[in-house]
Amino acid sequence: MMVLGKFILVAFIAEFTVIKVGAVRQKRSIDLIAAHSLISQERLPTDTAPSGYHLFLRPDFESGYFEGYVVINVTVQHKTYEIVLHAHKDLQIELKNATQVAPDDEELKKNSTEADAFKPQLLTIESAEKVKKKPLYQISFGSPIKPGAQLQVYIQFSGPLFNDTSEGFFRSSYPDIATKKAKWLAATHMRPNMARSVFPCYDEPAYKVPMVISVARPKHMIATSNMPVEKTTEDPRLKDWVWDTFQKTPPIATYSIGVVISELSSLSYNLTGKEEVPDISVTIWARPDFINAINDSTIKIDKTLKILAEIWGTPYPLPKIDIYALPNYQATKPADAWGLILFKESELSGRGSWHIAQELVYQWLGALATPFWWSDAHINNALVRYVTAYTTIQMQENETFSNWPMTMLYSIYYEFSKRYPHGKNTAIKQDSTSAKTELVFRMLNYTLGEETFKRGLQRFMADRQYKTFFGDDIWLCITEQARFDEKLPVPITVNEIAASWITKDRLPVLTVTRNYTSNTATLTQQVYLRERPHDVPDQDKYLWWIPVVLVRQDKLDFHNSTPFIWMRSEREIQIEGLPRSDSFVIINPEEIGPFPVNYDAKNWNMLSNFLNSPDRTQIPVTTRAKLLHDAWNLAFAGNLSFSIALDMTLFLKDERDYLAWDPVFTLIDHIGKHIDSSPTIHKKFQNYVRLLLSPLYEELGSEPKEGEGDGTSHLRSSLKIFVCQAGYSPCIEEAQAAYRKWMEAKNPDEGNPVANQYICPVFKWGTMEEWEFGLQRVLNFPSFRKQNERTYLLKTLAGCPNAPEKIEKLLTVTVLEKNVNFSDNDIYLLFSMISTNANGYNTTFEFLKKNWNAIKKRFEDKPYLWNSMVTAATNSFKTEEGLDRVRALYVEKQNEFGTADFVIEKALVNLKEEVRWSKENLPVIEKWLDNYISIYGSKNSMGR
């Protein structure tokens, strides 16, 4: 490893000035950010705080290490004997010295002249060492340091340049297009708490201070950082190396630091600002042979920066921005340093604008205004997501993204309607909470008005730029703007409205019961529960602030989103002045708030009739999709008759907008799996699916057409998947023809030429020979191919077949024969997939019953696999007959379930609920299907 020259550092340190800043903001009693943080780390003591850094970094590409030096200006806030910094365990650290460069408060009070004449004093250091089992570095002094003292701490360090992960300070290589030799690059990825792996620091976003960065590089390479280069000096120790020192940053969090050293090619242009706003230098970097592939991204960046400057009311805050398409970048997310962003090559060359917009949003929200705790906190993340979505729509170039927020809503409705949302998965909880909060921002944009909401965000950014913020800072600024614009009366606050949504892991359902004689209605809110039984504790205590935005048939106006009235955490309210009895009402049009709405049967029927009329398009497509989605979800939950929910699909025979079709595929999946326990009804349901989908499938054709939008391509793909799974003969024949080419290949294990969408239909409807061929491909899967291809094959082999003999063969091979090609994780995956259809769990039940002793012995040391198999065999029945079979097995083997006792007991409780659901709904569904098929006919369904 190289040793940094002390004489060079002295020259740099002499130019480093002491920067005085105020004390770090203290945590408030209500901090929505910290409450939802995914990161649990050691918090630093508040006795000291940084006021500035000068960071020196030099990578050694060949050895795979880096070294550096940091000078930290420290302000003592409380009497202390120590300074505690964050430091990663892999860092090698050597404290050079610590100097007091300004007197403390008591000495300042004596005489200002003496203060001015204060001479730096070297402090006595008792110890400097890492804290065991914690990412901390502790410097202890021989005597106490008083509040007000200004210190400079000089630390040398070295560490590994990560090569197998794009985190911290890492290196990567790519082949030179001319010589084919490897070229190195080095870069940093500090978010969220990886700055400590690069240098000892106060690695918390609240410690936001200016920074000077100096980087050593070979002369043939180029270094970039957060700010433009201020000067370049020769390295006297190493020939052909230089030091770039960059301009001092504004106050910056450690996770916003960025450095790249590379030989990549670049495209540059200036983004011209408005009057009195300086131009911004924009540079895009990539491999020389890839630079043309990202040429179009300059247009996206230009548009996005202008839209964001208008949203925030604040121009881009730095003089430049460097954007990289990094070869072999391995992180799951881009690295959004301030003024420097790292993308995967595919993210910059793709058609969409989402990735670019999101990372540019972070330049304002996260870098310019920084959350007091980690920026992954849900409220910061949610606002970034909302502004990204808004910006992407404003770009008007990504058709697929215009389905926002419907696809996200379907997911969070499903998650929050479970008996136990998120399970024990913290990541799912964080993501769904952020998604819900994002929708709360969208709701406020509608209900307060777009201009008021935007001015509220601008007020927030003006107040908190170059500073840190808490969640309630955002709500407060929106509240103040709404009151100023007279959109929100005193004493109502946006914080109160938002908290009613954010603090609950639930969503409401609003039920509208109209009185057609008095033209009034009763509105009732309750917890939306889709998964049975509906026995959630304290559900009667849940109440939300619900905006009642109302559209009436006699005055179809979908532009006015001002609430008719707010339900102010009230269980029930009465509203008056509704239209006459032959006109429908729609509440929560355009999914303004994240909640489904139920109506009385008459209002639903009027909505269904209108959607089936030529006037259907007077209702925007997003609202058409909402009505369909709400209806079938409410029916599934037991709050609406399935005959009404299925009536709401009738308009689709004339519908061609892909957004309206999106909810249908979830309906088919969920309802199909629920009724496949009744073969007769399920066969009729598949006939219904073929009749519903095949006309549009044939109209669109099986292949994309030139110039068609992403939405049409997405719709065609979904249609093909579901019409195939429903047994549509032309689709299955097409799938089998594609699959046959694989079967006829000389070396079928070298690769799979069949599109994924064809594999499940072949395994479901095809021959045993075709299925066996798929099984052999899993058994012989070569190590050089991607394992996710094998996983997909395995899932479809287990989850798709209709024939019991296929499932029994798979269970025999994996469980009884103990084939070495199947790991325990494979078997666990098989059990979870087998239970997704009636054929699977029926066959697994009989297989378990017939081979009970052998299976118990097989899994006696693997209780999680035993429990998983019992779950797959017993938990998915939906009929009285299924319940009786499970109950009989429980009685017969009552003392032999072992660790799976709780599984079978839980299954019996759940099955009773499912049986009740089936008794109530299957006759209704069958009657509706019989009527539908009699009207539309089954001759042309072309089913298997």
Radius of gyration: 32 Å
> What is the H level of CATH, i.e. the homologous superfamily of the largest domain?
tricorn interacting facor f3 domain
> Portion of residues in helices?
40-55%
The figure for the number of domains is 4
Membrane topology: Lipid-anchor; GPI-anchor
EC number: 3.4.11.-
Domain ERAP1-like C-terminal: 584-900
Domain Aminopeptidase N-like N-terminal: 50-255
Task: Describe what this molecule looks like in 3D.
The chain is α+β, with helices and mostly antiparallel strands. It folds into 4 domains: 1-23 and 45-262, Immunoglobulin-like, CATH 2.60.40; 264-403 and 422-485, Neutral Protease, domain 2 (Orthogonal Bundle); 508-655, Immunoglobulin-like (Sandwich); 738-936, Zincin-like fold, CATH 1.25.50.20. Helices cover 41% and strands 20% of the residues. It contains 30 helices and 30 strands. Strands 5-4-8-2-1-11-14-13 form an 8-stranded mixed sheet, with no helix packed on it. A hairpin with a 6-residue loop joins strand 13 (229-234) and strand 14. Helix 19 runs parallel beside helix 21 and helix 28 packs parallel to helix 30 (901-936). The relative contact order is 0.05. Residues 584-900 form the ERAP1-like C-terminal domain. Keywords: Aminopeptidase, Glycoprotein, GPI-anchor, Hydrolase, Lipoprotein, Membrane, Metal-binding, Metalloprotease, Protease, Signal, Zinc.
